[in-house]
Structure formats: structure tokens, C-alpha cells
Amino acid sequence: MKNTILLITIGLLLFAYGANAQLVNSDNKYQRPLNEVLKEIEQRYDVQIRFSEKDIAGLVLNYADWRLRPDLEETLRNVLAPFDLVANLDEKSGAYKVEEFRYHRKTVAEAKEFLNYLSGLYSNKEEWEARRAELKSCLPSGVRLDKAPASPGTKPILTKIRKMDGYTIQNIALEILPGVYACGSIYRPAKIKGKIPVVLCPNGHFGDGRYNQDVQKRCAGLARMGAMSISYDLFGWGESGLQFDMKYHRKALANTIQALNSIRLLDYLLSFDYVDSDRVGITGGSGGGSHTMLISAIDDRINVSVPVVMMSAIHYGGCPCESGNPIHLCSGGTNNVEIAGLFAPKPQLIVSDGGDWTANVPELEFPFLKRIYSFYGSDAVVENVHLPNEKHDYGPSKRIAMYHFMAKYLKLDESKVFDKAGNLDESTITVEKDNDLKVFGDNGEKLPVNALTDFKKLEAMFQ
């Protein structure tokens, strides 16, 4: 009997000790495993939260229950922020997905709030001009252009000119820094009469880079219409990859080098006596769209800008080549919509679609941009072509919109890419093979002897 009582007593004591060990109070900072908290949130708010048990294994949240609020979104922020995690809503499924914090992304609600904040900073042209001056002063240093060494001033490496139907193509490698080459292809009208405009075509992250058929068609189409256009590699892509491995494309310095590529290639193109320096355009899609907005804001020589499938208040460009430098932290914080506003009052076309982060442009971002343009009166030109049923690309519909806009403001001949019925006709354009567009040979055998291949030495140039 005594042994039975003893065993019962010991059992009760062990149970009490175990229960006490599980108590959640200030002694242990109200700690609870994160996966347990997320599961409770699912039940309490009747939502689905997707997360990887493996990714959050071992994560323990301090003061867990004290972070819960009546509002679900606020609760998720409170619970996940200590771990640099966020919960993004999937509009289609209605579920929340737990992911690492992405500095370049905002929710639609956060985007609205930030645009409202920016709107409150200026209510007229004078106030906007003061803000504009701050941003235009900050952006070049933000992208580290103020640290860039002087141009080597060497002559570009040029291939033979290839004659096509209504245009020509010539590949170029321009030494923008000692041993660092920007490679691209220049498209010119077959016959040059008088002064002609220039259009920069920075590349985005579409497959095949500047060898992509949509890129080739766009540049050739502009040349047939009467402009000299140029497409050029992303840093670490295409022939740039002969010098610097693609892994360095995801370094912040890629943002700097790509900006320098545009500026110094434009320096070269404007040196031709047949080029009209008052008719300079720029257009790119996706990451090239980010670059279009940035260069349009920095380089006052640009007269017409067409960023495609990129202007958004919810996404600033996830690649460091777009947002790796603190350009979006300028003047207390900005975004690509306000950066696009720096181009006002000059002609700008925003092309958006329903299949990516530009889906909200007509209702969210474009009214903000249009308000900035309104400060300049009737002479200011900003338009939006929204393609709700299309996805993220620079396909025919996007090119149609761009061709019309460039033709109007750069005085180009639309009949060279549209038939008599007004339909797009790019049938006369030749899509070349990758090797045809290369400067340094099929496998880089013509790479200059002085070509820099050490990324650390490139970084040192900006220190």
C-alpha cells in the first residue's frame, strides 16, 4: 500500500513538474514554437497559411501570444517580422505563403499607403520641383556613378556592317572602363537622310538576352522607321559573361555598370554628325524597364521614355542589377513610380499588363504619375497602354504601342512596320543567330588582351 501511495505521489509530482515546464509566462518570455503559433493563427482567423516545416524548424517566438491582434495582416507582420519573414497573399487561392522578407516587394495595401505618403509631400509644381531636385541629386550617387573612373576614350571595336531589308546591323564593343567592355548591336536605317534619332534598348531578363528575337525585332523595327537603335548586354550576360561570371550579375555593382553602359554608349552614338541630339529615346522591358526609368531620370539627354511591364509600386525589381544600390532610399524613400515622374513633362509611355506586378497600373500607379505630369500643364505627355489579358514580355502588342509612341514623338515613319490596314508587319525583319550578333567571336576567341576578368578589381575601381 505504501509503495502504491509513493508511486502515485511521484507520478503527480512529475506531472506537475512537466506541466509547469510548459507554462508560458514572462519567465520564459512567453516563448512558443513559430510553427505552433502559425497553426493557431490558421484556426483563430480561419485562413490557410502555407509554410515549410523544414524552413522554420527550431524557430521560437518570444512573447508570442502578445503579438496577436484583431487584424490578421497586422498579426502576421508581428509574428513573422522577428525572423525576417513575411506572409504574402495569393489572390487566386486566398492562402498566405510564408517567405523571406523581400526588400523590393510591397503588398498592394502597403503600396497605396506609400503612394499616399509621397502625394502628401507635394501639391503643386513648386513643391514637386523641390522634391525632384533632391531625387535627381541623390540618384547618381545612389547608383555610384560619382565613383566611376573616367572613360578610357578608346575607339570602339566594330564588326562589319550587315545589310538587311531597310536597315543594317553592326556589332560593337565599347570600353566603358579600363578593360571593361559593353557589347551590343547597332541598328541603322539603310538610307540615312539628314539628322536621325537614337533609341537605347537596354535588355531585361528575358531568355537569350540581346539575342532574343523580340529584342532583335524591336531594334530592327525602329531602324526601319528611321532611328538608330542599340541593344546591349546585361552585366554578366551575353558577351559580358566572357569577362564576369553570371553570379556577379546579382551584385549591386551590376546596377552601376549597366547605368554606365547606357550613358557611355549614348556618348558614343551622339558623336555621329547625322544624329539628332534632340531626339533621343529609350525603351526596355522588365529589368530593362527598370533601367529605362532610372536612366531617364538621371540622363537629361533622353527625350522620350517607354518603360515596359515594369513600373509598379509593389515591385521595385528583385535583381540587384535593378535595386542592389540604395536608389529607392533616396530622399527619405522613393519608388519606381516617383522615379518615372522625374521624367515629367517629357513624353513617357507606360506599358503594363494583367499578368505581372503591373496589373494595378491603371488604378494605382498611373493616377499618381499623371498627377505629377499635371503640374506642368497641357504640354506634359504621359500615357498608359494596359493589356489586361497579356503576360510579362515585350511581345508584338507591346511593340505596337511603343512604335506608335516613338513614331509620334521622334518623328519616325510608321509605314515601315505597319501595313496599309494598320496591322503590325515585321515580316521584312531578319532574326539572326546568336553568333551573328557577337563581337568577340563564337566562343570569345577575340576578347581583347586587356579585358578585365577579376570582379574584385572592378569593385576596387569604385572604392
Q: How are the elements arranged and paired?
A:
Elements: H1 2-21, E1 32-33, H2 34-45, E2 49-50, H3 53-56, E3 60-61, H4 72-80, E4 85-89, E5 96-100, H5 108-119, H6 125-142, E6 157-158, E7 162-163, E8 167-177, E9 180-189, E10 196-202, H7 213-224, E11 228-232, H8 252-269, E12 275-285, H9 287-298, E13 304-308, H10 320-323, H11 336-341, E14 348-353, H12 365-374, E15 382-387, H13 396-410, H14 455-460
Parallel strand pairs: 2-5, 10-11, 10-12, 12-13, 13-14, 14-15
Antiparallel strand pairs: 1-3, 4-5, 6-8, 7-8, 8-9, 9-11
What is the CATH H-level superfamily of the largest domain? Answer: Alpha/Beta hydrolase fold, catalytic domain
Q: Given the structure, what is the number of helices?
A: 14
Main sheet properties: 10 strands, mixed
Poorly predicted regions: 5-21
The total of beta strands comes to 15
CA-CA gap between termini = 84 Å
Structural class: alpha/beta
Count of structural domains: 2
Instruction: Report the CATH topology name of the largest domain.
Output: Rossmann fold
Mean pLDDT metric: 93
Question: What coarse outline follows from CA principal-axis ratios?
Answer: globular
